[in-house]
Specification:
The protein has 167 residues and is mainly α. 48% of the residues lie in helices and 6% in strands.
């Protein structure tokens, strides 16, 4: 048995959690943790979760940790460009590996936030699905993201998600 003293540890200062450095650290740490956990990681999920968790904020006075607030630029809420269709977002990095449309970041954040708040169980089922390598020989086929979505979110068709995000 290994001792707790010899386990990897990350230490963060709770006294400063709103600087650009802290936000970037939260973002990159979220990306690193999710990359270590998921065998297959769609780019939209990587960026969406990182944007969600970069808002982690420690409230010293109330001894609370807040997460999931809209991302900020300094003291102002970050302005996001319009959303992409979710079907386009799901294919990000699968079909086109060029520099993405800036709207993918706002759509990825919005989709992850929506799923975490409104469809947590299905999102957890999706994450469990991604922990294992794709079972089919054509795992890198452009249809794989849609198959994964359908398997994890049977009651949440893409068209419904797009409408709810617009609402």
């Amino acid at each position: 048995a290994s001792s707790v003293l010899y386990q990897p540890v990350l230490c963060f200062s709770a006294l400063s959690n709103v600087s650009d450095t802290d936000i970037a650290l939260n973002y990159q740490l979220s990306r690193a943790i999710s990359a270590a956990v998921l065998a297959r990681q769609p780019w939209w999920l990587t960026q969406g979760l990182a944007a969600y968790f970069q808002t982690l904020n420690v409230d010293i006075g109330n001894t609370r940790i807040n997460v999931g607030n809209p991302p900020r630029n300094g003291t102002l809420p970050r302005r996001f460009s319009a959303l992409l269709p979710v079907s386009t977002l799901l294919l990000w990095g699968v079909v086109d590996r060029t520099t993405p449309d800036p709207r993918v970041y706002s759509t990825a954040w919005a989709l992850c936030t929506f799923l975490l708040n409104e469809h947590r169980d299905e999102l957890l089922r999706y994450v469990d699905l991604l922990k294992a390598p794709a079972a089919t020989a054509d795992a890198h086929h452009p249809s794989q993201p849609m198959r994964d979505w359908a398997a994890a979110f049977p009651s949440l068709p893409i068209e419904r998600v797009e409408q709810e995000l617009r609402d």
